[in-house]
Amino acid sequence: MENYELSTDFARLDLQAIHAYLTRSYWSPGIPLEIVERAARNSLCFGVYTQGAQVGFARVVTDCATFAYLCDVYVLEAHRGRGLSKWMMREAMAHPALAGARRVMLATRDAHGLYRQSGFTECVGNTNLMEIVRPEIYRRV
Ligand SMILES: CC(C)(COP(=O)(O)OP(=O)(O)OC[C@H]1O[C@@H](n2cnc3c(N)ncnc32)[C@H](O)[C@@H]1OP(=O)(O)O)[C@@H](O)C(=O)NCCC(=O)NCCS
Questions:
Q1: Where are the alpha helices (DSSP H) in the chain?
Q2: pLDDT in tens, 103-119
Q3: Which of 26, 69, 85 to mutate for ligand 1's pocket (most ligand atoms within 8 Å of CB)?
Q4: Which residue's CA is the closest to the ligand 1 atom numbered 39?
Q5: Whole-angstrom Cα distance, residue 90 to residue 75?
């Protein structure tokens, strides 16, 4: 997209910027920087950049063969509404790690409409899915 670059290069990630967003996100409030860094290092990450600054991010936890879990998707407020997250989703879904996966999963509170555009459908009522949810894990003292 004009004026923006998208990259999967780990070396380009601005981990401080990613942490600054994720620690105020609704899904990982309080997450420590070192956890963000370890997670990114062990994932396939997509960064969106403009004028040398990182303004968007998406992370894929995957075996690069059969399964992928998409998470930590955000675009900074000043850059929203320009199609950047749809671009990240298109690029992510076209990446071999996801394009060849048997299952790709994600969790979202309210952005279903974004992911539907990339082919995701709701798992509502699928009792084969199990999860452990600990949304306050970083809040423990
Ligand atoms: C969700 C988010 C990544 C969208 O980024 P964006 O670059 O502004 O989105 P785009 O311009 O690519 O467009 C998003 C599309 O999804 C749709 N959409 C559906 N639910 C949405 C939601 N909750 N927020 C934003 N867009 C949503 C939009 O209408 C738009 O579709 P359209 O162009 O057909 O109208 C961004 O609003 C954000 O960072 N939100 C806070 C973090 C978040 O909720 N991340 C998702 C966690 S699952």
A1: 15-22, 33-41, 84-94, 96-99, 112-116
A2: 899 999 999 999 999 99
A3: 85
A4: 74
A5: 15
CATH of the domain at 31: 3.40.630.30
Global pTM reads 0.94
Count other Cβ atoms within 10 Å, centred on residue 116: 11
Structural domain boundaries enclosing 114: 5-139
User: In a mutational test of the pocket of ligand 1, which residue from 24, 80, 120 has the highest number of ligand atoms less than 8 Å from its CB?
Assistant: 80
- Give how many domains the chain has, as a whole number: 1
